[in-house]
Amino acid sequence: MKGIDERAALHAALGEPGRLAVVELLQWGDRTPSELADLLGMRSNLLAHHVNVLVEHGVVRRTPSEGDRRRTYLSLRPGALDALTAPSASSAGAGRVLFVCTANSARSQLAVALWQRTSPLPATSAGTHPAARVDPGAVRAARRHHLPDLGVPQALGAVHAQGDFVVTVCDRAHEETGLLADSHWSVPDPVGGDDERFEAALAELERRVTDLAPRLATRA
Fold this sequence. Notes:
The chain is of the alpha/beta class. It folds into two domains: 4-76, Winged helix-like DNA-binding domain superfamily/Winged helix DNA-binding domain (Arc Repressor Mutant, subunit A); 96-215, Rossmann fold (3-Layer(aba) Sandwich), CATH 3.40.50. The chain contains nine helices and six strands. The chain has helices spanning 4-14, 17-26, 33-40, 44-56, 107-118, 136-144, 156-159, 171-177, 195-212; strands at 60-64, 72-76, 96-101, 123-127, 164-168, 183-184. The strands form two sheets. It has a four-stranded parallel beta sheet with strand order 4-3-5-6. A two-stranded antiparallel ribbon has the order 1-2. A hairpin with a 7-residue loop joins β1 (60-64) and β2. Residues 85-91 have low confidence and may be disordered.
């Protein structure tokens, strides 16, 4: 657990309304600085200052996009806010969770399998450019962790429905779909890598699913 001085410094950093607003948005998913600036109506130089303070306090991290390399995604560091009260999300009802990536062959499929093991809320997945089959590495990862069977790649246009809570788990898909996503998770693509890369992706997805599941209330 953080010492009292560290926790006091963290509270002080979050005591500024602009920084707290940044953190609350990032608790729902990763954002680029320009997306945060637009959502908050904040000047880019002021946002950059707030982000730098949050980075210095170990709350926020920067990662380059796997799609447009000129973009940087901001995300919360795992465990950075464990000492604080989690935000309420009782108003964020959803009829179904839709996980989206480009090929719908690995990350989005694994996210659905993890979600099914975690939440009673229905979930499905789709791709902006679906592959012919689920990647064998994803299938092996699911079997190692005794996850439900993975589905088959589907096109986003054929799956997306009104009322879906859309989570993009791929930078390229997020950048392609624009404002469609309710949340974005910048998860590195494991396809083409070894089992260790799939394990890393699965661990990140599980952390995110575990965080989001209790905060999404089923819409009546």
